[in-house]
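Bench notes, afternoon.
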Amino acid sequence: MQPVTLTPAAAATRGAIIDTAERLFRTLGYQKTTVADIARELRMSPANVYRFFPSKAAINEAICARCLAGLDEAAWAIARGPGSAAERIRALFQLLQRETQALFFHERRMHDMVAAALEESWPIVEEHIRTIDTAFRHIVMDGQTAGIFARLDPDETARLLHGSCVIFTHPLLVEKCFRKGEDTALLAGKLADFCLRALRPD
């Protein structure tokens, strides 16, 4: 089946498919929602949905991309924003913790999709990881220029900072490592301070 040319009308239909699929994911769940469910809600045939997305996996990735795009934009707003490099590192840790908490504990049906995206290494997730690494790198280089961070390799340092956040950004670790009601925001702040001490110049 030939994909449609993305005219304004086609783009609107594609957007409606994503909107409908996301709403169903949030009510029925990621795994239970089928292309037939999406088509039924839109009063179109499944074949018409497949004209815009070659598979349900493509719809999944489009929704995941939408979820992560907001987080990427917020991360860069912090990285390029006001405040010292240390303040921005803390803010980025807090952002990642807060958004993870909202998704995994308040949007449980969306949790399954994000968990699958991480486990299966969807391309959009790999791109998101690189984006957050780069945001950390930007702040690290600002801190080095200001003389408040040690002259460590900025790429490696950014990767280590991002890796330090994994305990509260990976869905499986969030589920396994934290007791219900545990203050992950407090942990994020303490972990940021720990990393900042390691970044101080000798």
